[in-house]
Amino acid sequence: MEKPHSRSARLWVLGALIGIAAGGAGPAPVRSQVPLLSGNTQPQPSPAVEKASDPLGRSTPRTAVFGFLDAAHKGNFQLATEYLQTHLRGTDAETLAQQFALVLDKRLPARLNQLSESPEGSLLDPLNPNRDVVGTIATDNGDIEIALTRVDDHKAGKIWLFSADTLTSIPAAFEEVNANELGKRLPHFLVANRIVQIPLFEWIIVLAGFPVLYGLSFLLNRGYRLIVRLVWRRKGRLDQPPSSEVLSHPLRLILIGIAMFSMRTEAGLSLLARQFWTDIATIVLLGAFTWLLIRLNARAERLVQRQLRRRKLEGTTSILRLGRRVADLLIIFAGVLSILFLFGINPTPALAGLGVGGIAVALAAQKTLENVIGGASIILDQAVKVGDSLKFGTVQGTVEEIGLRSTVVRTPDRTLVSVPNGQLANMNIEAFSARDKFWFHPTLNLAHGTTARQMELILNRIQAFLNDRQEVERGSFRVRFTALGAYSLDVEVFAYVNATGWEGFLVIQQQLLLGVMHIIEEAGSRIALPSQVIIQGGALAAESTANPPAQVLERPEPRPNQVETVG
Q1: Cβ distance 304 to 314 under 8 Å?
Q2: pLDDT, mean over the chain
């Protein structure tokens, strides 16, 4: 006598798909369609049968249910009776097993993945620990609770069997299910022809159902679009509605998944087909919700970007983009984990491997991470913004782009310099664009021939000139005679100028310098040039060092402003 299969319903589905793709080759999956008129064929042993203390695999509720379904699917109802707590023997017991198998196949909820794998059961009812509920079947005469009970067998020890209380209601439920059997109302070839022991009409329902539902969602979207356009036009709007797609693709998939869940019991499918339909609907819903969250994340990014542009914080979009990508990866990762849990795959080893791999990647990408963290600190601190004119090290120019890895600066020579953010974060940055006002600070070198009266006149007029200029900040300017220099009489002008940008300051500075020159010329003075004084025969002669006399060039050059007596 063979051991029954203990695979989960999800692995049945995968086995069925593999069997179809291979044309029937490979291990055959467990079949959910019960042949009512088949004979007692001896099943072949399977190498994938789970080993248990009981030869029939009745040690846990899961293996007991799967063992009964496996025997019934293979037409071995004599073996299936070993999973029933009944006093019937022989043909009567086999008939009850056949009826029970059909009732389970057509009405049992597709929740086989929730069956307990513990020998003690799920222990949902502490007062009755030897009883485990598989599911509830709805009939015209009321709900039937499909339950297992744990009994002591003198050969196998403690085993799980379908309880006698459940089996007493099966004949009446069988009559109702058999009378409403969908296969009786379909053409014979759709019922007789089978693929992996599943009737052809069930494959048509399962495989064609999704495209049909998606087509219905497309028509529903078109109908909604027409209604929106009619309402838009009745309001007197001549432009197009704000959104041409009322039902986005994720919302369509969500509606399809909900429809698949609601129709899985109405189509009269077998247990395997309903389990397959349930798994597909769950995957569709998980994928649709993942897709919808990603699209909502993208829309939220666009809304935040608009607010940042209004506040002139374009550099922050780099961090915003990184945050969106990280959120998308987390959403996708959560969706993949949910699907893995759905198919009973433990992701813990994979997560541990990802942790070790993440450490290795982090060690190998230290510089990249340093630049990313440096870029994030620059953007969050707002030390540098796009459009700023700045100087750091030997580089001077205007910031054109702030990325997560590097910052791009346009130099006055119109070249582009890319500086890693890790280096930029550790450098002294002089931001010219951050100035609230500009420093006007020329030093006037007046000729030595300027008299004290002329100097007083120049100082007073420059002071009045600056006071009359609206661009010069009140109380910030001063004009002082600071030094009797070797070449000139030095006058310091100090003032702060309010201007919009560097170009605006250059225009104002030009006007101020021209005004100062006019004042100096009107006072009878001039800007000094480096010169020397030569005495020839008792007369003073001032010659510019730019064009000295020939006789002076024939002697050693005297130091500037040195008085030399000739003759």
Answers
A1: no
A2: 74
